[in-house]
Structures are given as C-alpha cells and as structure tokens.
Amino acid sequence: MIPNTVLETLHNSLSGDVLFDNLHKTLYATDASVYRKIPLAVAFPKDENDIKTLIAFATKNNITLIPRTAGTSLAGQCVGDGIVVDVSKHFTNILSFDEQAKTITLQPGIVRDSLNDFLKPYGLFFGPNTSTSNRCMIGGMVGNNSSGSTSIKYGVTRDKVLQIDAILSDGSTAIFKKISSQEFINKKREHSLEGKIYTTIFDELSSVENQQEIKNEFPKPEIHRRNTGYAVDEFLKSDLFGGSESTINVAKFLSGSEGTLAFSTAITLQLDNLPPTESIMVCTHFTSINESLKATLIAMNHNLYNCELMDKTILDCTKNNRELAKNRFFLQGDPEAVLMLEVSANTLPEAEVLADALIEDLTKNNFGYHHPKVYGADIAKVHYLRKAGLGALGNMVGDLKAVACIEDTAVALEDLPNYIEEFTKIMTKYQQDAVYYAHAGAGELHLRPILNLKKQEDVVLFRKITTETAQLVKKYKGSFSGEHGDGIVRAEFIPLMIGEQNYQLLRRIKKAFDPKNVFNQGKITDAFSMDKNLRYEVDRIEPEIKTIQDFSDSEGILKLAEKCNGSGDCRKPVEAGGTMCPSYRATKNEKDTTRARANTLREFLTNSEEANKFNHQELKEVFDLCLSCKACASECPSNVDIATMKAEFLYQYQETNGYSFRNKMFANNAKYNKLGSKLPKITNFFTNSIVAKKVLGVAVERSVPKLANQTLESWMRKHQPKKSKKIVYLFKDEFTNYYDSEIGKDAVFLLEKLGYEVKNIFHYESGRSHISKGFLKEAKEICNKNITVFKDIITDKTPLIGIEPSAILTFRDEYIRLADDKTSAEKIAKNVFTFEEFLAKEIEKENIDISLFTSAKKDIKIHGHCHQKALSGTHSSFQVLNIPKNYSVTILNTGCCGMAGSFGYEKEHYKVSMQVGEDTLFPKVRNTPKETEIAAAGTSCRHQIFDGTKRIAKHPITILKEALKK
What we know:
By secondary structure, this protein is an alpha/beta fold. It contains 45 helices and 28 strands. A 6-stranded antiparallel sheet has the order 5-6-11-8-9-10. A 5-stranded antiparallel sheet has the order 16-13-15-14-19. Strands 1-2-4-3 form a 4-stranded mixed sheet, with helices on one face. The longest helix is centred in the middle third of the chain and has 20 residues, at about 455-475. The protein is globular and about 100 Å long. The model has no long low-confidence stretch (mean pLDDT about 95).
C-alpha cells in the first residue's frame, strides 16, 4: 500500500491534482457497469507532462493507470485499483480544424455532441452516435470503438480515426497515423519503445500461420461492429501481411484497445457531411420480437439512416418517467417491439416517397400492424426515448435489474433471427425474460437478463448465461463485443471468442506496448474475473435504514440510491439542454453530479459502521452543492430524486450533529417574517445591512428580498370576495404572503375578473424551507396540519391553486412522503394546481373569456422554475400567456437559475449560484430586448434574474392581470 505522504508528493509534482480522500475514491470506484473497485487515487492531469509523471510514478510503484473520460462504460473499463486518470476536466480543447479536408484534431475530453455543435455551421459532423452522445467523450469512444445508431450509414469510430498522439508506457511520445508499408519497415529500425512495437507487430503478423488463425477465428468480415480483443485483423489489410493496401495505420488498431496500450492525448478524426436535411421515421409496431427481426431484413434494403429496436420492456420503463412519457406520442396499443426506421432525402416529398415505399414493402410481406410516420423535431424525441432506454432500465423497483453482460453481441444481419431464436431458448431455460433493444439494422441487439446480483444464485446465473451466450455468438462467428468493449465483463471470454492462439498473440502485443502493465490492468488480456468485485456484496444482510420520509415506492432510500446505474445523464453539458445537473455544469467536477451523490449515499448506507449511517462528512460534502432543483427526478432516466434524498440526509445528519443558527433562520423564515412584517421598513433596512448579512452568513453581494408593507393574508381578510358558482381555494404560500403580496392580490383580482370565487381560509405555510434545510420533523407537522385543513374541502370542483411553484407543488411531491394520512394527501394532490395549470385547464374547457384581454402586441420570454419543470411543466405558462391574442410567447431553454431558495444567498455558495445563472439564464435574458417581458413564476428565479442582469421579471399572473382591458 502506497502511503498518503507519497501520494501527496505526487500531487505536488503535478500541475493538476491527485486526490486520495475517501470521497473521491468512492466516486471513482464504479462506472456504468456492475463492478466496484476502490482506486488508490484519482488524478486530474492538466497537460502531457502530468501524464508522463503519472506513468513514471505507476512504473516505479508497480501500479496501474485507469484512463477515464465520462465514466459511462458498461463493461467495467474504468474500474480498477490503481490510479484513475480523469481527463474530462482539462483535456477538452479542439487543437486544429481543417474544413477543406474535413478533419479535426482534438483532446480526448470533448463531448461528442458538443463536437458536432461546433461542426454544424460548417456542414460537417462526426458520425458515430452512441446513446450517451450528450455526455460521452471522444477519448472514451475511441477506447471502446463506439458506433451507435448511425453505424449502418456512417461506420464505427475506428473508421473515422486518422491519427492518435499518444504517450507510451515508458513516457515517450508517439504519433500513430497512416504510413506507407516502407515507412512501417523503417519504424522497426528505431531504437525506442515505438520501434519495438512496430517490430513486434511485424514479426507476429508476418506469420502466415497467425494470419490464417486470425481469419479462421475472428468474427465474420461483414460484421462491422467488432470489438473483441485487439483489432489485429485490421493489419491483415496491409500488403505487408497478405492484404492489398500499401498503407497501414496503427491508430485504427488502438481504437477499441480500452486504454490498455497507450495513453491518447490527441485524436484526429475524419468527418462527414451532414445528413440530408429532411427525414421521416417510420415507427413500425410488431406483436413479437422475432417478427421485428425478420422485418429488419426487408427494411435494410431501403437505404436507411437508422434501424433501431425497442422492446416492450424498454417501452414500459418509460411510462412512469415524467419526461420520457411525453415522447411516447407515436405508440398505438401495447406493441411487443417497435422498429425505428429512418429515411432521409434533400426534400420532404422525396423522403415521403422513400417512407411510403418502405411501408409498402413491409406491409406486402405482412410485417407490422401499425406504421406511423414521425417528422421534424419529433424524430429527436423518439431517438431520445430509445437512448434513454439504458437509464430507464434502472427504474425497475427492487433488486432485480437488467444486467449488462451479453448486451453487446453482434452477428451478421442474415443470422440475426436464428441467433435470437436460439438465444431466447437459453433465456427460457433459465426462466429469463430478457430485454431486447438497440441496433437491429447492424445485427446487434442489447440483450439483458434480469438478475439480482446481490444473490449468489443469480451471480452463478450471471456467469452461466454469459458463457452460453458467448458460445452461441461463437457458433455464428459473431462478435461478443460490438461497441461496448470487453472491459471486465467480457475480457475473460476472449480466448473462447478468438481462439487460444490468437489470445496469446494479443498478450504478446500488449507486452510489447506495455511491458510493465502500467495501462488499465485486467482488461482485454489477463482479465479480472467477470463475477468478482461486483458493486454489491453477495448474500449480504440488507441494511435497515429508518427514514422519516416514506420511500416505499422504491422499497427504501437505499434502493432509491441504487437505482442509479451510472449512465451519467447528469454530466450532460449546458448545450445539451435541460436542467440536470446545475452544480456539475458550474464546476465540471464528478463530485457534483447526481451520480456522485447517489453512489456516495449508496456506499455509506451500505458499508457504514456508524450508528447513524448518514453521519459522514463525505456525504455532507457531496450533497453541499446540490441545489435541490429536482431536475434529476424527471430528467434522470432512473428517476433518482436526489433532492428528496438530500432532505433526508440533512435531517438525519443534523439530528446527530445539530442544526446551525443560519439553517434555523432559513428554515423558520416564515416565523421570523411574521414578526418582521409588523415593522417591515425597519426589518428590510436591517436584513439588507452588511452587518446582518455577515451575521447570517449571507453573501454581501446579494440583495435580500424585502417584506411587503401588507401581507397577503391581512389583505384577504379585509377583501370582500365576489360570489360565484365556480369556486377555488388560494394557497397563500409563505413567500407570496410576506414578500410578493402584490402578486397574490393580482391573482385574486384576475380570478374574480374571470368569474371565480376565491375562497380564503386559514392554513399553514407549505414547509418548503423546512424541507430544503432538512427540518423534516417540522415539515411533517406542517404537512399533517395542512392535510387536515384541506382534506374535506379540496375536490375536482373546488381545487387548491398556488402561486409559488416550489410551495404548491409540495402537495404533489413531498407531502405524499411525509403525511401520516397518505390517502388524504394523495386525494388532495390530484386537485392541487399551479395558477398556470389551473388556467390552462380552464382554457381547454373553454371557460375563459379571452375578449377580456388586450389585443395589444407584446413579446414575452418564459423562464421556468425548476420544480415547475420537473413536476408540472412550463407548457401551461405558455398556454395562459397566449390568452391575449397578439402576445408572442417563447419558452426560454434555460436550466436552473442558480438561486434555489436560500442556496444562492449563502456566502459559500454565491459564486456557484451565479455561475449556474451564467450558464444559460443570464446570457439569454441579457440578449432579450428591453421591451420584451420576462416571465418567471418562481420568486427565487425573479430575484436571481435581477441580481444577475438587473432585469425585472414578472410572474405570469401579473402579466395577465396587466393584460386585462381597462
């Protein structure tokens, strides 16, 4: 074991960082696979010299370096007990771009979709397109030889790699690119590690016996998704080794080598012209998997750009995800399988001809029962539904999960139906209902058995099913790894797949590149065991975790955390859209992802020996920058609701360690505002003073919200309501009541003008501040009191309407977990609406007289509150602001504003808060003309917009009230 003092010395010798605390080692112990290995340390190199230093350190201390970018590997490539080298933070630059040659050179930490955003104005793109394309990085794609949904048209990553600049295992540098056969011979003469590598390749591949053995044992040549072992078959194209090509490129051999041979620092790629502008996707529905696979043979005759499969299991997983459910619009009935068949042309009429011909051919051959055509932006929604399939599999409640082990098999297209038929027999033998999805047109399906790897009997099945599937793939001369790589899960099967003689050849080549096994030990050659070092201890006694919130919908908080499968959707950058995860977007640190929080919570709840398993500083650190935005509750395909788990953590941690003065002040904000509102001017002067801010730990740069001169509650007690048969109850939340009472008055005025009677009854605050600060006992008490107040009066005829999204939506979210009377809580929740939701429903019922509103023109831009986006949606805001017929309304594609209640006021969080705002919101507001109205329903959002841009945003209620004819 290397002492921490030695690691500290290593850290000090780097421009970047080496971290070896428990938290970071925990974060990097897993990727998106089923494996877990605690690394020695995690390094974040800033330059090539840092990497050379790490290589020298690893060589001297006989340890391994595990290269990592986004950490979305499914086979365990990024898991190891050496030093994980994360290049995703600093190696993120485009080094050169040649528009004419259609080539680009970049560092390995560039996100695939971000690269294509850069290339789009030039009419170019990088073709390989994985399901993780909005966060996976080019280095990882090269390491795995990734392909994705576009491979039938644009090939795999290996096809696009022109050059790799690498650091070798002795610290020397090498540039691998296309060279002539003579140049290859000349390279052999160099007295260097690079020269030795070329000599070994030449000596090994010159053997006619070795050449024949590769031809005999490697997958069929027509299978372009081939990633089993090292791509020594690539060399057979060269005239040096029996082929016809007079050039050779070792960079293509390195593609798919999983970082086991050299450390890539720059990659040059060949680009393609953008696809034709007009596409139509035919989403053919089938009554069986087998029928869909046979139909694939017909469909692939139609020059498709995509031919993807989703089965019923995947589709069912998307039903209960708030975001994914919106993308199921094309489905009819309950199909066993859907083929996504995309045709493209330069004009829409041409694309229609292609789509119609495809449908006619399928119909003529009696394939499919429904053939809907999807157009334009809706195609991306269908693609997203398929891409999210992997993460959605993690949404299965309980310990049974769809396990990645045989999910990457590829066979020749004509073999696919027979292969699947035999595969299904294996699954039936083991009483398995496997999951079928992905790249049917390429002969590859991501097949997954459903297993509980916490149980020894299923770990045994894990090996048996993998072994028998490997044997079946070998029978069809297919590839056991089409695009996900060998990693840990498949590497020990390489001798079976390519023969022992070829396997020994791979070992010798690995030895030539990396004689001291510095690079990613245990992958491809001399592999780790596929059924050891699993994420969960087998046959463990399940920890009993008592919580104040009800997590029974996930069978407990631990299993909610375990739903995170590491797919890394929370690492998607700002340009990918959405909100998740604002803290990661601001810091670019893995520690600040949704995945990191779920993994750390899982680790300590499982392995802690503390009486209170939540009582760990590492948990406090990893949750610190969580803004509780709830984006993960909807955008994470597995619905890993970190905000809810953070509230529980804060409660449990503070029960042992105490509640700070500042947290008490923020949590009990409504109580203190009640006192302050008696003398609002004096209170406002004091709370905005530097002294008060310093005492409370508030950033001095912040403007503190000012109490209104009159509370909404006080005004409503004096207000004479207008009687009507249409009755609503208004929830006077604590933010509107004390700060934004004018908005509350506008709401009453507007509702009455529209013909509603607004009932005012006494109720309690929402408890939002208590929840966000972990004061869950108090929040539970408030929740129960409010349930008692409303349970007998809130119905579909008399709904409860709220103004502040974060407050009113607690009835639909946290109250369900906190309430003692859960039945009443769920009944109330069905009839609780944001103001905009209520009006949108009334518009649909034609209950709103639009003649009451102005015909003047106005441009409005909407920024949605995070809780609104996660739990409700912003479309209702769009609908209601379009009531005035000449209003032009746009929903801004903005993420989190960064304020997040008290978060943005806290001095230690101020900079991150403002950076989150700068990521999307502030620039878009600044670029909006001054005469354009900014609409924001959240009080925190409005304050953040003002602090960040000096623009005043209005609640949609106020905008509508002002739009009423005088």
